[in-house]
Specification:
The protein is α+β, with helices and mostly antiparallel strands. About 50% of the residues lie in helices and about 15% in strands.
């Protein structure tokens, strides 16, 4: 079974599940960006908005009709079932109502079947560019500064493993502001991150030192911070976020006083 056959079979099974009115391919398949490594994302639209939970349960009970299932779980959002087949094909089934479908996808979907007649209004939907809120950005900025400040404690305890973990957290926050700063594109999954970053950003991330010694951990931290703050500040100016000046300056002084300037 390949991705196309899997998608077709998903549609056939879902059409027979009570309470399901329509099903659409989303994700990379919905955007015509799928490759040989893509999963099959399907939005399952309930006929009755009050039946989301019941329909999710019925779908979970029907998975083996789609294909032999190697692994499956319901994600914490209680709307999505994540599945892997015996052929190691991946698919996600997310149960939504019609309004949520338009909001989540901006019309970037393809119908597997559409008994609710949602295709026409969806075709007129225009996805709005992703715009971070000040709160979302500041959550990242404040956490970045906090983790930077903890570098002093970690170095004092001579715990290189924890230091490596810390720089990975900082790198992940850098990636998040890179993606925010790029703006306008549809956010993709973490397994397709390359498409959300510029070539220059990718090169910057790949060039970071491995962090296997204290000197390389410090250089890795310094390089990440050097990229993070200008990008995050530019986004803050754009979205009207009040920058935590004192938190940053006191933390920089704290690092410098302990011979860890960034």
């Amino acid at each position: 079974m390949d991705q196309a056959a899997l998608a077709k079979r998903i549609g056939e099974v879902l059409k027979e599940v009570p309470g399901v009115g329509s099903a659409f391919l989303g994700g990379s398949h919905g955007r015509d960006e799928a490759d040989a490594y893509s999963d099959v994302d399907v939005y399952v639209v309930v006929a009755d908005a009050d039946e989301v939970s019941d329909v999710l349960t019925r779908i979970a009970q029907s998975l083996e009709r789609i294909a032999p299932i190697l692994f499956s779980k319901t994600l914490p959002n209680a709307r999505t079932i994540n599945c892997i087949t015996d052929d190691w094909l991946r698919f996600d089934l997310t149960v939504v109502n019609g309004f949520e479908l338009a909001f989540l996808t901006g019309g970037k979907v393809k119908p597997l079947f559409d008994e609710l007649g949602l295709s026409v209004p969806l075709s007129k939907a225009k996805p709005s560019p992703a715009q971070p809120t000040p709160e979302t950005l500041l959550d990242i900025v404040n956490e970045f500064i906090r983790v930077l400040g903890l570098s002093v404690m970690v170095k004092g305890r001579n715990d290189l493993v924890v230091a490596q973990t810390g720089t990975n957290l900082l790198r992940d926050m850098l990636i998040r502001v890179f993606v925010m700063g790029n703006g306008g594109q549809t956010r993709r999954g973490v397994l397709a991150l390359r498409k959300d970053l510029t070539e220059s950003q990718q090169a910057t991330l790949v060039a970071l030192p491995a962090g296997t010694t204290w000197s390389s951990v410090h250089e890795r931290t310094r390089m990440i911070a050097g990229e993070f703050f200008p990008v995050a500040r530019a986004i803050a100016d754009r979205v009207g976020a009040t920058w935590p000046e004192r938190f940053e300056q006191v933390t920089r002084a704290h690092l410098a006083n302990n011979r860890l300037p960034i």
